[in-house]
Amino acid sequence: MAGFVLVGVIIGAVLLIWLRGKSDGVKMLLDGLAVLAYLGFFVLGAASVARTIMDDTVFMTQVHEVFNSPIFLVSGAYLGPYGLALLVQQMVGRRS
């Protein structure tokens, strides 16, 4: 399954690189969609993790134990704003 995901990501990346080469308008559109997707993904994920921790409903299976990991929580707290800043900087920097 991981192989299918990896191949899909690579094919998607190649397609996006090709589309970004079409025009500046397409680049802006794709960057805007990336910001929206990033915000949606991060906000929903963070809200779910926070709700799980606050409700004390972390089921201690191996996949769920990550919600109790300070490294996971601190990394997510850093990567959220950092990733968004990079996306916005890339999008705004092109206009200059």
UniProtKB/TrEMBL annotation:
Domain of life: Bacteria
Keywords, alphabetical: Membrane, Transmembrane, Transmembrane helix
Membrane-crossing segments per the record: 6-21, 33-54, 66-88
Protein name, per record: Uncharacterized protein
Organism: Paenibacillus taihuensis
